[in-house]
Amino acid sequence: MAFHSSMLSSSQPSSQFHLQHHPRPSPRLPLLRSLPLHLRLRIARPRLPPLPLAALSNTDNIINGGGGAGDDGDNNNNNGGGGGEGEGSDDDGGGGGNRGEALFVLAQAGRKLESLPSDMAAAVRGGRVTGEIVRRFAELEASSPLIRWLLRFRGFRERLLADDLFLAKLAMECGIGIIAKSAAEYEKRRENFVKEIDVVVADVVMAIVADFMLVYLPAPTVSLQPPLAKNAGIIAKFFHNCPDNAFQIALAGRSYSVLQRLGAILRNGAKLFAVGTGASLVGTGVTNALIKARRAVDKDLDDEVEDIPVVSTSIAYGIYMSVSSNLRYQVLSGVIEQRMLEPVLHNHKLLLSALCFAIRGGNTFLGSLLWVDYARMIGVQKAQEEI
């Protein structure tokens, strides 16, 4: 009993010892609880970005994460046809990120979304353009009054955003058109060049009218085209989702199927057929008018010069542009310039422009040679010896 009582007596101080030490950490609790709260407040304030986005009308979209980038109808020429990396659709992964990035760039520039053209503002809301595209638009708009005026038109806006050298290439093509076409005509006709000058004029006039469209239509674009109506047909939806250039590089988060790239060739071929036929109608009409004027002055020309067949020549030239010109310019714009030259010489614009000028000049000269051979092969033009 004595031993037991001693054990009890010895255990009691121990329990008292523990009881006395339990309350001792409690004075630290307020301090421990206050430290994380105090640190969190001090860290959070510097990390809040001083965005002027609150001035934008759709700031709530940014705060809420933006959701998706639009429904399945928000497809355009820069979209593919579903699957893969957002092929044909602006999913939450790409659209929301693009929208936030584009709005942030606008905020840095001190601009509101409403200051953009309506189609571009809709593309930003739908997450179909990146912040880099918005930045490029602002730079182009501030570059010169001419470009600022051209940016008012969606066709030029889409092409200038995709290629800042688009206007230079357009000027190159039109500038070398007359020289290259005339040189090619002389190379093929040689001593008959003067005798066949009326046919030469027809070819040059057709070239002047067509060269613009040959650069314009196959040029890569950043499409700002609004989505199609939900009741649009299957064919309309398919071509709506095709790129403007079969070989162009898709924007981040988008891709094109092989079928859609083939569709770009077919669609541009149809457009160039219409352009070529119309240009040839103008060219051959002008040439026939020149022939009649020469006959009125020189009666001896009646037997030497024949009128050019307007309809057959126009259709032949339309077919030539839809096939030969279409393929050559698609490869030139989408492969040689955008995929090969631009990545290597992006920071050397002068050298890049010089190479583009040389390549486009050679392509124009080659096209003139091919047209003469093709026109003679199908019989719409004849060599002077056959007349």
From TrEMBL:
Residues 1-18 have a biased composition (Low complexity). It is a multi-pass membrane protein. It holds the Pfam family RETICULATA-like. It is found in: Plastid, Chloroplast membrane. Keywords: Chloroplast, Membrane, Plastid, Transit peptide, Transmembrane, Transmembrane helix. GO terms for cellular component: chloroplast membrane. This is Uncharacterized protein. It comes from the Eukaryota. Belongs to the RETICULATA family. InterPro entries: RETICULATA-related. Residues 1-27, 64-97 are annotated as: Disordered. The lineage of its organism: Eukaryota, Viridiplantae, Streptophyta, Embryophyta, Tracheophyta. The keyword Zinc-finger does not apply. It comes from Brachypodium distachyon.
